[in-house]
Design brief:
The chain has nine helices and seven strands. It has 228 residues and is an alpha/beta fold. The strands form two sheets. It has a five-stranded mixed β-sheet, with helices on one face. Strand 3 and strand 4 form a beta hairpin. Helix 5 packs antiparallel against helix 6. It is elongated. It starts with a strand and ends with a helix. About 5% of the residues have low confidence.
């Protein structure tokens, strides 16, 4: 509400120029703001936080080394995150020194549709399509989130023998963004089993053999290399 006050006379009863004092009352606006806040609170969809399940390496000391690394070899995919957004991978599990001496064992790839995603989708054929169908049903409202999670878990459990198990190994020269990009590929390809683990000396040798960069090697490996 606006209120205008006027002074018509000056001292001694003489007419002077009129002065107007304008006062605006904002009290009604408080009620209006509260109504707007309440309206938006009830009409706005609250976003649920998006979480990502990561399978970390097991640390049970009672388990043997063989039990800890028991993975179906044909489905094992190891990603090595290098410097300058470089990405490498190898399939299976290296068995002996002859494998590490094989320069073709480590494959150069990249992030995105034409790189590692293409390989993972090929290896996850069947499982990927089923998960995509469940996602479509969730989006259409055919199933609720709890049902989607339960059915997704069932699909991954059933595909354990054929689905790939991805091991992500960042290096000291890779970036946080590289890690995020690798995890994004896991979600895009609906990979059910993946873990972030440390590099082995063999992995470091693979990277050195491919790039010639000694920064990938440990101090012991550099010393041994210098002695040869």
């Amino acid at each position: 509400m606006a209120e205008i006050q006027q002074d018509e006379k000056g001292e001694g009863g003489k007419n002077k120029q009129k002065k107007q004092h304008l006062r605006v009352d904002f009290t009604p606006m408080v009620d209006m703001n509260m109504l707007l806040i309440t309206f938006f609170m009830f009409c706005t969809t609250l976003l649920k936080p998006q979480t990502m399940n990561i399978n970390m390496p097991m640390k049970d000391e009672n388990m043997t080394k063989e039990e800890k690394t028991k993975i179906k070899e044909s489905g094992a995919v190891t990603l090595l995150l290098g410097e300058n957004d470089e990405l490498y991978y190898y399939l299976g599990i290296p068995k002996d020194q002859s494998t590490y001496d094989d320069s073709t064992y480590l494959v150069t790839s990249s992030y995105g549709p034409d790189g590692i995603r293409k390989l993972l989708l090929e290896k996850n054929t069947g499982t990927y399509e089923k998960i995509q169908e469940l996602k479509a049903h969730l989006k259409e409202g055919v199933i609720v989130d709890s049902v989607f999670r339960a059915k997704t878990k069932e699909v991954h459990e059933a595909a354990k023998e054929i689905a790939p198990t991805v091991m992500i190994k960042p290096t000291e020269l890779s970036t946080y963004e590289n890690m995020v990009d690798a995890l994004d590929e896991m979600l895009i390809c609906n990979i059910g089993a993946y873990a972030i683990i440390d590099l082995t000396e063999g992995d470091r040798f693979f990277l050195y053999q491919r790039t010639g960069n000694k920064e990938y090697l440990t101090e012991e490996q550099r010393t041994e290399l210098g002695q040869k």
